[in-house]
């Protein structure tokens, strides 16, 4: 199909309509929604987006290259939150050397001739970690994500990665999407953004939560891939052998952990929220393949039966799980499984849903969120935190706020520990597939020097997260300064 003219009587349009009538998978580039997608992409890149998309403005972007620190630097005159304990420490200095924490010493032991940075008695803490992030899918709406040229998604994601870093999130665990190239660009210094632990394409069964095909694409011919599969957003696998292949493909591409859809979801229209997805054999195939590569499987699932099936198969991280019951919580605690929860409360931070069926499912999840946090604390389940901002770019500036509102369930320093040291422990489960050498989320000797200096009193509240432009005085990642508003 050579012409891309969007006139009602164009040959491409006529062929498109005929394809719909025949039930054939038509060329995505000539889809009638593409002009709308192009307009949305243009709006996302505009200096001021009238539709509420976050504009790319200089007040939230790096205006100069990151500043490399001296070979050895002592951060002094600070209060320390180390990500390991829920209290602040005083009278200490932190030594940074070659991108790592070299030592934590008494302030009186800092050599008099050593290079120092006076932190003005502010709180120094580890960089924040979002354990459920979608680097390629957070900055666009769903139609754009499903229809756009993948190159457009990468360009938008690159800018959003920079803004994520400037909100204080120095690491993210990507829970689905083709983030491999973005990660490489950041690690090479070509782009600015957080460290990324990529999962690659979300693996779903036919009709499962990440089956984004249109109705006219069913049934599909042998080995035929949908647009989202070709783009690396998702992949469909039925049967243990297909699951095995898809898991190995994502590991080959560089996944640090693997993501499967083990139950229904809010954003999908085909599957019920309580529905079970992937059989025992399929889940075990995925877990076995991941373990052979030294890593683990994380699964999207809400309902109790789905969680229990996944845990029985050896899954190590349950994403969401807001419909868990008491028995399921006991099983998770007994097996040492991580519960990666998000504060889905049906409030202004909820991902945008237009379909009434999705809205109803979203309300059901919100009703279960309070119970989920109660169960997690009661049974002392290892709990991670993430936002899961998906297809809702207008919510990106509120990423930190979505962490701050956890003070509804925990004291402020416990919340910070969850988003630093605890999430860092979850990341280490990638084992042989861990893309970074050194601990994250903590300030201790040998850890990577990803640090924040905050304007706030975190033992009292986390208000500094609501407005990171004012709340973060210093952002250091990998021993490089990305933001510094301290007086000279």
For this entry, give a set of tags.
488 residues; 9-stranded mixed beta sheet; 5-stranded parallel beta sheet; globular
Structure description:
With 488 residues, the protein is α/β, with parallel strands linked by helices. α7 (240-253) runs parallel beside α8, α8 (280-292) crosses α9 (304-313) and α9 runs parallel beside α10 (326-335). Strands 1, 2, 3, 4, 5, 6, 17, 18 and 19 form a 9-stranded mixed sheet that branches. A 5-stranded parallel sheet has the order 12-13-14-15-16. Strands 7-8-9 form a 3-stranded parallel sheet. A hairpin with a 2-residue loop joins β18 and β19 (480-484). The relative contact order is 0.15. It has 14 helices and 19 strands.
What's a concise summary of this model?
The protein has about 500 residues and is an alpha/beta fold. Helices cover about 30% and strands about 20% of the residues. It has helices at about 10-20, 35-45, 140-145, 150-165, 180-185, 225-230, 240-255, 280-290, 305-315, 325-335, 355-380, 400-405, 410-425, 470; strands at about 65-70, 70-80, 90, 90-95, 100-105, 115-125, 130-135, 170-175, 195, 200-205, 235, 260, 295-305, 315-325, 340, 385, 450-455, 470-475, 480-485.
């Amino acid at each position: 199909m050579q012409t891309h003219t969007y006139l009602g009587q164009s040959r491409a349009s006529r062929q498109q309509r005929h394809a719909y009538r025949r039930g054939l998978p038509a060329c995505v580039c000539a889809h009638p929604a593409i002009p709308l997608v192009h307009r949305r992409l243009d709006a996302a890149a505009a200096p001021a987006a009238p539709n509420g998309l976050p504009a790319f403005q200089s007040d939230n972007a790096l205006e100069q290259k990151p500043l490399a620190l001296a070979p050895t630097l002592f951060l002094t005159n600070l209060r320390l939150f180390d990500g390991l304990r829920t209290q602040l420490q005083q009278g200490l200095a932190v030594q940074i050397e070659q991108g790592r924490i070299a030592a934590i010493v008494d302030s009186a032991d800092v050599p008099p001739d050593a290079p120092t940075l006076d932190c003005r008695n502010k709180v120094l803490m580890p960089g924040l970690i979002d354990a459920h992030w979608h680097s390629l899918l957070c900055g666009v709406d769903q139609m754009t994500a499903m229809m756009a040229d993948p190159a457009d998604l990468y360009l938008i994601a690159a800018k959003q990665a920079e803004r994520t870093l400037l909100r204080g999130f120095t690491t993210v665990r990507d829970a689905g999407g083709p983030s491999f190239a973005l990660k490489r660009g950041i690690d090479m210094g070509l782009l600015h953004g957080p460290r990324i632990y990529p999962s690659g394409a979300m693996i779903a069964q036919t009709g499962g939560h990440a089956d984004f095909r249109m109705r006219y694409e069913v049934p599909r011919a042998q080995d035929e891939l949908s647009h989202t599969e070709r783009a690396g957003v998702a992949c469909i696998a039925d049967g243990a052998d297909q699951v095995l292949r898809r898991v190995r493909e994502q590991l080959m591409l560089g996944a640090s952990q693997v993501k499967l859809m083990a139950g229904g979801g809010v954003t999908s229209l085909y599957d019920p929220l309580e529905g079970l997805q992937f059989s025992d054999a399929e889940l075990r195939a995925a877990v076995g393949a991941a373990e052979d590569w030294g890593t683990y499987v994380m699964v999207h699932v809400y309902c109790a039966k789905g969680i229990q099936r996944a845990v029985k198969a050896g899954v190590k991280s349950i994403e969401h799980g807001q419909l868990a019951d008491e028995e399921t919580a006991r099983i998770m605690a007994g097996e040492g499984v991580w519960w990666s929860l998000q504060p889905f409360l049906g409030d202004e931070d909820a991902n945008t849903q237009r379909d009434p069926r999705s809205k109803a499912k979203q309300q059901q999840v919100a009703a279960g969120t309070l119970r989920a946090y109660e169960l997690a604390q009661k049974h002392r389940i290892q709990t991670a935190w993430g936002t899961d901002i998906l297809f809702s770019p207008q919510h990106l500036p509120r990423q930190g706020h979505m962490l701050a509102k956890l003070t509804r369930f925990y004291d402020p320093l416990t919340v910070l520990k969850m988003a630093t040291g605890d999430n860092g422990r979850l990341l280490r489960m990638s084992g042989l597939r861990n893309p970074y050498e050194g601990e994250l989320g903590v300030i201790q000797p040998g850890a990577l020097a990803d640090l924040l200096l905050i304007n706030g009193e975190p033992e009292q509240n986390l208000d500094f997260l609501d407005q990171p432009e004012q709340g973060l005085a210093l952002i250091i990642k990998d021993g490089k300064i990305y933001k510094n508003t301290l007086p000279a």
